[in-house]
Amino acid sequence: MTEESTKPLPCFAVDASFMAAYLLNGYCDNELADCVKDVEYILTSNGQFYVPPLFWYEIENVLLCKTRKGGKVKTSLSKSDAMDILYDLQKLPICTDVQTDGEIRQRIFALAVEYGLSYYDASYLELSRRYGIALKTYDADLQRAIQTAA
């Protein structure tokens, strides 16, 4: 067995802000090259992204909001563009963690209280801690929690 075959595959926990930056590259004012580099690293290394079930509601809501004109959204997507993005999203190596037992929910709650996060945001932090993997996010509250915990 070669040394390379025994190395663990790269994995990240990702939240909707991170994946939206990647998927909407070119549609957003704040294009973020770092997320493209991280996603390409996972793809070329046969790695994996981990998300809680909530991720799917959040990311699809971001796309839905982008298809609506007016409000806070500066640029909009056509329904066809949004559907293309959803198709591309399905092709990414995303593993949805479905463990929602009482112990995990208690840890999420405790993290939310400790770091002043929403329960939703704390679910991403708990997932990254449980798997011992980095959390990729552009959410300011989650970034603060990650830095505080380090």
Q: How much helix is in the residues?
A: 55-70%
- Report strand order across the widest sheet: 3-2-1-4
Compressed to H and E, one letter per element, the order equals HEHHEHHEHHEH
Largest sheet: 4 strands, parallel
Number of helices: 8
Give the radius of gyration.
Answer: 16 Å
Strand composition percent: 5-15%
SS-derived structural category = alpha/beta
* Alpha carbon gap, first and last residue: 35 Å
Regions with pLDDT < 50 over 5+ consecutive residues? none
Give the CA-based shape.
Answer: globular
Q: What is the β-strand count?
A: 4
Keywords, separated by commas or semicolons:
single chain, 150 residues, alpha/beta, four-stranded parallel β-sheet, 8 helices, 59% helix, globular
How would you describe this protein?
This protein is of the alpha/beta class and 150 residues long. The chain is 59% helix and 9% strand. The protein has helices spanning 3-6, 16-23, 33-44, 54-67, 79-91, 102-115, 119-131, 140-149; strands at residues 11-14, 48-51, 94-96, 134-136. Helix 2 crosses helix 3. The protein is globular, with a radius of gyration of 16 Å. The chain starts with a helix and ends with a helix. The model has no long low-confidence stretch (mean pLDDT 87).
